[in-house]
Amino acid sequence: MPSMIPKLYIIVPCYNEEEVLPITSGLFLEQLRQMTAQGKIRDDSRILFVDDGSKDHTWQIITQLSQEDPHYIGIRQSRNRGHQNALLAGMMEARDRCDITITIDCDGQDDIHAMTQMVDAYLDGSQIVYGVRSSRDTDSFFKRTTARGFYKFMGAMGVETVYDHADYRLVSSRVLREFSNFKEVNLFLRGMFPLVGFKSTCVYYERRPRMAGESKYPFSKMLQLAFNGITSLSVRPLQIIMGLGLLIALISFIGVIWSVVVALMGDAVPGWASMTCIICFIGGIQLSCIGVLGEYVGKIYLEVKGRPRYIISERTNDDQEDP
């Protein structure tokens, strides 16, 4: 159990959030001050905004906030690298500057008051605390169905995740130091943190509608995130391909025997329809398998290049303390 009051960094990834940032930034600061007043975190805790190469005035707003209050600081990526890379950049920036980090999206949908429970869980000995939605009553039927299907499909494919957990979590600096040894370029943080280990727990909360602006995660991006997570953390698709190949080979072998028997009995009827169906079926299976294999080869290609996962181009304060 930690014996000292921890220093907290709230990490907020931002991409084109000029509409909602002026609203939620004040809420984050209010929560930070409240936890400080309760003696749960140190007064030099910070709110770290990570601008993921926004094209609007997000960075100007972050800069202005940092000038108005020292609790606000910000870093800016040299270009848009995606939500997962922005989170990683923030966590690695804060890793040696604090005791704990809490990552939360900028849109105000996640209940910021759950942070207090997260810190309490850390003080009780947990090194990772997952923020988990208690229900999906506010979602549309389509959103609720696809989200549940997402987690079930990830589990079926062998990816370890926390059900109904996105990227709202508390992580200690001790865990982040170990996590920095994970060098993957293709990131799926929801599936990577369970691999680190350490004591973990969950905090449940109600998710609200977005306060302003538009969602940056439509269904197409969720689908892309799921596929990236599966191919980055699991070889189950390759095992499925092997099993499917063996099954088709068995069926084909039975078909060959049947064809020989029918030919010997003199009952063979010439026809192209059945042959065409078989050829199309086998061809489709082969192309699908090649596509999955190609996805894995492409990820290997990106990994072996060893390119940086993020590049920080600007910071709001040149006088930030060194790690």
Description:
The model is unreliable at 319-323 (pLDDT under 50). An eight-stranded mixed β-sheet has the order 7-5-6-4-1-2-3-8, sandwiched between helices. The chain starts with 7 loop residues before the first strand and ends in an 8-residue tail after the last strand. By secondary structure, the protein is an alpha/beta fold. The protein has helices at residues 21-37, 58-68, 83-94, 114-123, 141-156, 173-179, 189-196, 219-233, 236-264, 273-305, and strands at residues 8-14, 46-51, 72-77, 100-103, 128-133, 165-172, 200-205, 312-315. It folds into two domains: 8-233 and 307-315, Alpha-Beta Complex (Spore Coat Polysaccharide Biosynthesis Protein SpsA, Chain A); 236-305.
Task: Give a short overview.
The chain has helices at 21-37, 58-68, 83-94, 114-123, 141-156, 173-179, 189-196, 219-233, 236-264, 273-305, and strands spanning 8-14, 46-51, 72-77, 100-103, 128-133, 165-172, 200-205, 312-315. By secondary structure, it is of the alpha/beta class. The longest helix has 33 residues, at 273-305.
Chart the SSEs and their pairings.
Layout: E1 8-14, H1 21-37, E2 46-51, H2 58-68, E3 72-77, H3 83-94, E4 100-103, H4 114-123, E5 128-133, H5 141-156, E6 165-172, H6 173-179, H7 189-196, E7 200-205, H8 219-233, H9 236-264, H10 273-305, E8 312-315
Parallel strand pairs: 1-2, 1-4, 2-3, 5-7
Antiparallel strand pairs: 3-8, 4-6, 5-6
